[in-house]
């Protein structure tokens, strides 16, 4: 069997009522003219949307089939044990050319009961934004089902929601149960559990080209919402050039950021997980198996198999990446 290598996948482009052409200009995505593309699914194991390899001798194979063949060598033994042939994360770039619906996602327990699926905890990293762009995350004051339902019924939902102005580099953690919406003029990277379950709460009374409003999930959403109010909805994190800095760590994923202009050596031999790099800026080479190389440029996402434990990142120009994997949970290990 030939050795595994860093895998790139064909982008799965999604037309959306709120999408645009910005993924082309900002992240070099190959978007057809006149198509309103809202999402580029970079790595997906969602049924009906399985990622297909783009590079190397495994080109044209589906991700789930490769997990079946390579098992722990591809995803990590502990991850294969837990998830089988389903890849546990869904990785996207999103272009909110217009405001998205206000929505919420169920947690694992509710999603299992209703949909036989995982729930959806996610995070957003703002790649680019127009001036004064903003998004919605959570409530802006104490809330309960009764008050929430009253505002929803009276078309006043936005009044009770927390709005945040955004800038490139901002991060928002969106645990299952948090009401949220991406505003117009924002491009972001989204890392989430493998789940495509969304309860749409309010869609700004918007109609499609046929004059129809999109389906709402008012009752389903009610049981999924976390009505708590939090002090801070934005994630603060440290950044230091040529140092990998943790942004977010939870049981579903860990996301780090690395901005580098010199070679960086990586050693993952204690991790037992695949690694994902999302290139937000620049261009670099990954050197692996001592002499093999692959080039990665802005807008590309690459999956590093768990079996590749040592590699070197060599910048062609100054580069910025998100590094994503599943952290170990037992005994508080990293």
Structural account:
The chain is 15% helix and 38% strand. The protein is globular and about 65 Å long. Strand 18 and strand 19 form a beta hairpin. The protein has helices at 22-27, 63-70, 72-75, 77-83, 108-115, 145-153, 218-224; strands at 12-20, 37-43, 45-46, 49-50, 89-96, 102-104, 122-129, 134-139, 161-165, 171-174, 180-181, 186-193, 199-202, 234-235, 245-249, 254-260, 264-267, 275-288, 292-297, 301-304, 310-325. By secondary structure, it is mainly β. It contains seven helices and 21 strands. It has two domains: 12-235, Jelly Rolls (Sandwich); 245-332, Jelly Rolls (Sandwich). The chain starts with 11 loop residues before the first strand and ends in a 9-residue tail after the last strand. The strands form five sheets. Strands 1-2-5-12-7-10-14 form a seven-stranded antiparallel β-sheet. Strands 15, 16, 17, 18, 19, 20 and 21 form a seven-stranded antiparallel β-sheet that branches. Strands 9-8-11 form a three-stranded antiparallel β-sheet, with no helix packed on it.
Quick structural gist:
By secondary structure, the chain is mostly beta strands.
Name a few traits of the molecule.
globular, 7-stranded antiparallel beta sheet, 334 residues, Jelly Rolls, 2 domains, 21 strands, mainly beta
What is the ordering of alpha helices and beta strands? Answer: EHEEEHHHEEHEEHEEEEEHEEEEEEEE
User: How many individual domains?
Assistant: 2
The number of helices is: 7
Tally of extended strands?
A: 21
**Share in helix:** 10-25%
Q: Considering the protein shown, what is the CATH homologous superfamily of the largest domain?
A: Jelly Rolls
- Rg calculated over all Cα atoms: 20 Å
How much β-strand is present in the residues? 35-45%
- CATH class of the largest domain, please? Mainly Beta
User: Cα distance, first to last residue?
Assistant: 31 Å
Class from secondary-structure proportions: mainly beta
Shape: globular
Spans where pLDDT lies below 50 across 5 or more residues: none
Going across the biggest sheet, name each strand in turn: 1-2-5-12-7-10-14
Mean pLDDT: 95
Q: Any idea of the CATH topology of the largest domain? A: Jelly Rolls
Classify the oligomer: single chain
Largest beta sheet, briefly? Answer: 7 strands, antiparallel
From the 3D coordinates, which CATH architecture of the largest domain would you assign?
Sandwich
């Amino acid at each position: 069997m030939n050795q595994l290598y860093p895998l790139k996948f064909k982008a799965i482009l999604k037309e959306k009522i709120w999408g645009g052409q910005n993924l082309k200009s900002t992240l070099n995505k190959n978007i057809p003219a006149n198509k309103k593309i809202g999402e580029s699914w970079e790595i997906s194991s969602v049924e009906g949307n399985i990622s297909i390899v783009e590079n190397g001798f495994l080109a044209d194979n589906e991700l789930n089939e490769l997990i079946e063949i390579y098992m722990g060598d591809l995803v990590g033994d502990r991850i294969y044990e837990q998830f089988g042939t389903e890849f546990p994360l869904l990785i996207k770039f999103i272009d909110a050319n217009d405001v998205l619906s206000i929505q919420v996602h169920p947690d694992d327990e509710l999603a299992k009961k209703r949909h036989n699926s995982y729930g959806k905890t996610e995070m957003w990293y703002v790649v680019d934004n127009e001036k004064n762009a903003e998004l919605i995350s959570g409530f802006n004051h104490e809330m309960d089902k009764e008050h929430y339902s009253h505002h929803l019924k009276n078309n006043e939902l936005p009044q009770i929601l927390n709005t945040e102005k955004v800038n490139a580099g901002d991060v928002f953690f969106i645990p299952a149960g948090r009401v949220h919406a991406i505003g117009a003029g924002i491009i972001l990277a989204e890392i989430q559990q493998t789940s495509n379950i969304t309860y749409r709460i309010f869609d700004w009374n918007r109609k499609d080209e046929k004059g129809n409003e999109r389906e709402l999930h008012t009752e389903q959403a009610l049981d999924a919402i976390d009505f708590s109010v939090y002090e801070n909805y934005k994630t603060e994190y440290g950044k230091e050039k040529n140092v990998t800095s943790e942004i977010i760590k939870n049981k579903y994923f860990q996301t780090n950021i690395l901005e580098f202009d010199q070679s960086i050596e990586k050693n993952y031999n204690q991790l037992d997980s695949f690694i994902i790099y999302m290139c937000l800026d620049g261009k670099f080479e990954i050197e692996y198996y001592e002499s093999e190389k692959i080039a990665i440029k802005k807008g590309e996402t690459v999956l590093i198999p768990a079996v590749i434990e040592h590699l070197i990142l060599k910048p062609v120009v100054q580069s910025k990446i998100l590094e994503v994997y599943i952290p170990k949970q037992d005994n508080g290990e990293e």
